[in-house]
Design goal:
This protein has 139 residues and is an alpha+beta fold. Helices cover 19% and strands 40% of the residues. Strands 1-2-3-6-5-4 form a 6-stranded mixed beta sheet. It starts with 5 loop residues before the first helix and ends with a strand.
Amino acid sequence: MAYVVAVTAVRNWINSLDTLVGAGRPLALGAFRQHPRSPGHGAYALLSRIGRATGDLVAEDTIDSPRISASIFAGTDEAAEIAAVAYANAVDALRGTPAAMGDTRCLVADDLAGPLLVDNHDSDREQYHYVVDASFFLL
């Protein structure tokens, strides 16, 4: 089993999607490994590795299958939901052609869960929070 730096790979992939990330896009601020100090205006994703897929895609020893959780935050419930749905659709589209993710390649994303509203409002951050989890098969 070869492990890869999966959170960084997925973060770099998300931040490269100009249809998802950037001014006026659903996930305007992009993806991070930790909360940004000054998130400003717009939605962002906080990524973490929460394990591995329960089943192996193939019998290859070189494939890592991290389960990545994306916590989507925004200043309004609507903006957070729009960003979470847009991210979930981008991940769901990883079922066709393999996608480059930095030095690794995603063969497929599977077992998508969410978008799920975590709570109505985080008063400390004044943000709404949705979660989308998926298993990525990386080579």
